[in-house]
Amino acid sequence: MQALTVRRLPVRLTCDPRHTITRFFWLGSARARKIIDRVMQLDDEQAAHLLALTEADFGHLGNELNEIFLKHYEEAARRVVMPESLSIERKRLIAAYFTMEYSFASAALFNPSITPARNQQGVEPGSLKFIMSLRCVGEGHISSIMFRRGIVDAAGNVTIEPGGPYREPKRWVEKRLLSKPDSRAKLTELGVRETVLDALFNRLENPFTMQDLRTVLYRVQDVEGLCIHDEEHRNIDSLGTCDYNVEMLPDSGMNSVVLFPMCETESRGMEDMRLVRFTHDDGSMCYYGTYTAYNGWQIRVQLVEIPRPELACIRTLHGRCIRDKGLALFPRKIQGKYMMSGRLDGENLYILHSNNIRIWDDAVLVQEPRYTWEFVQIGNCGSPIETEAGWLLLTHGVGPMRRYCIGATLLDLDDPTKVIGRLDEPLLMPGADERHGYVPNVVYSCGALIHNGILLIPYGISDAATGFATVPLDGLLGRLC
Predict the structure, then answer these.
(1) Where does CATH 2.115.10.20 sit in the chain?
(2) C-alpha 164: how far from its chain's center?
(3) Residue 432 burial by CB count (10 A; 0-12/13-18/19+): exposed, middle or buried?
(4) Which of 94, 417, 470, 479 could serve as 364's disulfide partner, Cβ 3.0–4.6 Å?
(5) Tens of pLDDT, residues 307-350
């Protein structure tokens, strides 16, 4: 059988330390009180001069820098008791010491997904505008998710628009009310000490919010010096969910969007988003993306809905089948149900189905490791793509020396639990110049697209950079049917 023609494009995306956002910077209440005391020892003239110099030095962060300072002041004020009757200028100066500039893509830029843009206005005939998500890594090996726009022409050539400027996202959380008796009982079961529970719940109203709880938590540590263990911190945080909305600047567009960890569940990283343009039953469209949240000791699967460029709604997925990384939504409902591809057991590929996009209790095993290059495990490489022949699902397989390769499977259009065909050899393997990186010997994608008879695959290169490859669709389907 004739080998498939895979063309690697000359475009490559790499880490870029110039992309930054601001973050709240915290060293603990004891250190914070010392910093605040030092700032308060400055006279008004010294304080005004220092604030002006700071704002001038970081003017590239835009007009919202003062707003960022005031927000970070309020965050610090929830954790320690601030001096009374402070001026706005003094608050901003104090907050500057609790603010840092963070280069979120300084170490790596990889594991991309790609989907057609909703708006194709102004595109040259034969070309397609697309949106990409990418996993980026910065200081402390913390992963976040950024977005880029680009165009693929009729021949499969790719042009990527410049990204940025990026700004600190604005987050708001719906205030979910929690019961004191129920919450205390749960934390008791989790092993939080009675002395800690007394200190917290004696100061809370009933019901209360997670914001109320965290404010009390900070204060009993700061004012009373109560020692709370790391495990107890994690258990207390588990009362809340990682459900929040992120608002970006209205004129920023997707090219300036970065999703950075904003809750304990994802505090150590947001990994490997599978982005898809989803078409609802009424014909309306939005972007959905599934990603892995990591807090340093466990993972949780999150769903982001992007109904418009300046809004992202993040919600936690639930259900018996939400156990593993790498879940990818189909781009529409099938026979009235949402469907996803993913693993449940770390090894095999399943199709999940549900009436509720946030709750997944049912799955069918569809594919197990069969060939030598996937003996360790298999999984998807993004959302299935609809073709006339069936659902084209790119897969990844892990073989000898933990080498990751990309394969392909074809699923039935009406019943995606039925496999029509699968490649017996990799579609894409790490090339000689792609084997070295933070995790060597890996090619990995979180989603591809079809344009003008060409399959365009963006792919991560050894957890370091991003490349692009194209494959003729007819040739690939001919191997699968």
Answers:
(1) 7-16+104-171+241-480
(2) 17
(3) exposed
(4) 417
(5) 887 788 999 999 999 989 999 999 999 999 999 999 999 999 99
